[in-house]
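A quick word before the example. In earlier lectures we treated sequence and structure as two separate objects. From today on, think of them as two lines of the same record. Here is NAD(P)H-hydrate epimerase written that way.
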Amino acid sequence: MQVSSLSLDAFKEMDYWALEKYNLSIALMMENAGLQLARLVAKKATKGSVITIGVGNGNNGGGGLVAARRLAAWGFNVNLDLAVSITKELPKAQLERALLFGAKEGIPKKTDIWVDAYLGFSQRLPLSAVFTNKIEVANASSAFKISLDIPVGISKDGKLTGFKANQVMTLAAPKTILEKLPSAVEVFVADLGIPKSVYDHFNIKMPDFLKDQLIAL
Ligand SMILES: NC(=O)C1=CN([C@@H]2O[C@H](COP(=O)(O)OP(=O)(O)OC[C@H]3O[C@@H](n4cnc5c(N)ncnc54)[C@H](O)[C@@H]3O)[C@@H](O)[C@H]2O)[C@@H](O)CC1
Ligand SMILES: [K+]
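And the structure line, produced from the sequence above:
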């Protein structure tokens, strides 16, 4: 029987296998993730929308920074809430590009759309104080909230204890941890460019990415 949702560990295994077997790189997949995230944000935004993207020092942050660059390129007002110093090679390069494209560092007075690319599937609970403080500030804002991959601070049983996302854009395949989110939270799955043979190998149903690379679940 094929499954459609994966545990985070099963997803990491599939992801790693795809990277190795098909000579894919994280940078390449991050580019796909960031483009789909930018599309989802742009659907919600209007011309004058103020967008804040919360960024951590990992690949989740890197995906958020690709989205920041794409949104800035489309003319949006993009702000970056850097939770920690961005020192890792890949997110650092993405940060430099996003700034060159016109994204600004800092939290503006009012945000219309707040994106959580603070932490993704490598987050360990409890979060450090710097992240809990960031989540508190974001949750106190009236902004529409979108999480990349999984919300920062989500508990193992899927309780939305952290960032209060209105939408979650998860990558490549649905994750079981997202099944227990409140029903009002809209979950989307985005195409990372992983081929069908990888889904078949792991006995997972591939979302119909031929139709659209961003699918509402
Ligand atoms: N193929 C892939 O693996 C891809 C992954 N992408 C994204 O990358 C994410 C995973 O990236 P990473 O593994 O770099 O990690 P994350 O971005 O989830 O986390 C970054 C780092 O935060 C630190 N951290 C973890 N728990 C913490 C805590 N409690 N307090 C403070 N710091 C903490 C860790 O050092 C961790 O490495 C995914 O969720 C997804 O969004 C995408 O960008 C593209 C492709
Ligand atoms: K996230």
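Notice the following. The first strand starts at residue 50 and ends at 55. We will return to this example when we discuss secondary structure assignment.
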